[in-house]
Here is the input.
Amino acid sequence: MPTAELSHEALSTREIALPARPRLHFLDGIRGLAAFLVVLHHMWTHSFLRAPAMDYPLWFRAFSFLKYGHHLVAVFIVLSGFCLMLPVVMAGGVMKNGVMGYIKRRARRLLPPYYAALALSAALLLFFPSTRIDDGAIYGAYHRDDMAGSFIAHLFLVHNLWPNWASRIDGPMWSVATEWQIYFVFPFVLLPLWRKWGYAAPIAIGIALGLAVLNTFLREASFWYIGLFAMGMAACGVCFTPEGANKPQSWPWLWGAGALALGATAGTAYGSTVLTGPCVDIACGVLTASLLIYCTRRSVVPENCAPLIMRILSSRPIVALGNISYSLYLTHFPLLLMAERWAEPRQFRASVNFEIYAVFLLPLMLLFAYLFHRVFEKPFLNSPNKR
Here is the structure.
């Protein structure tokens, strides 16, 4: 979920193998592309809902990869770990203004847009009853049963702890609750583990904790993301500490975790599928951490000599998309539900639904996210000297 941001001004003059204030615009680019693909994922999956079953054109089947867009949440979690670890590394391992100052900054950054989007979704349920869906099998569906309890759980960002409430009101908000909870695990668990045993311990313990509750009611919370957050912390340490920046061999955890994740993912194809989701998330986390390390180390290269992927991720349109990514993530789903209710009685086939969503709904989502960002998000962004 795209909320953590980087303050270029927060970088100090530590003697590392990077300039004191590198331009890391690619972070916004990664965040923006991930949020955009999550939107396309929901548009693609909801194109099938209540659409007549029939053969799909080849171009539509080419977008089948979008059904795995759920795993892009792992990208946001690793990015959060990277960005929130950066000021800690720059300050020699301590939190600026202490834990309470950190929590206040996170609350100011995450909560105002979240509550605004929650109010928007709740209003949609109240005043547009046609948006309500009672089919609990549909991911991210609106529900009208037990709305009071679900709303209260959303207010306190604990709805992800109950399977029946995790995807209600506004489906994608489950990951906001998980990330909010990880914000508290970071100073009280992950940082002490890092200080005592290094980066491998937070990753291993975080993933183990998530897998330990995999077969319990806490499965929907995806607590293996704690280990992915720790991967972002480790990627930051690799890039912004002397020992990490100058000794690539100091991060064998990356290759070991990657091999473990990919091997476990392949293994589930021949047995139980319970571990498939977490293993794919872990693999996505490893790839994201690797991309962050690669791009950060090449941020010292002149812009005209930067690798193609750096130029794409740092381009103005992609960075601008990253600036509104949190608002886009929070607000796109209510608009999609309204469009779906409009399309349902017309019985378009799935490919036509997707075309309508992509051509007409997607620009509306982007415009609405921009306006939402200006009103409910931008005023609460921490100033550079306070991040």
Remarks:
- Confidence is low (pLDDT under 50) at residues 7-19, 135-141, 383-387.
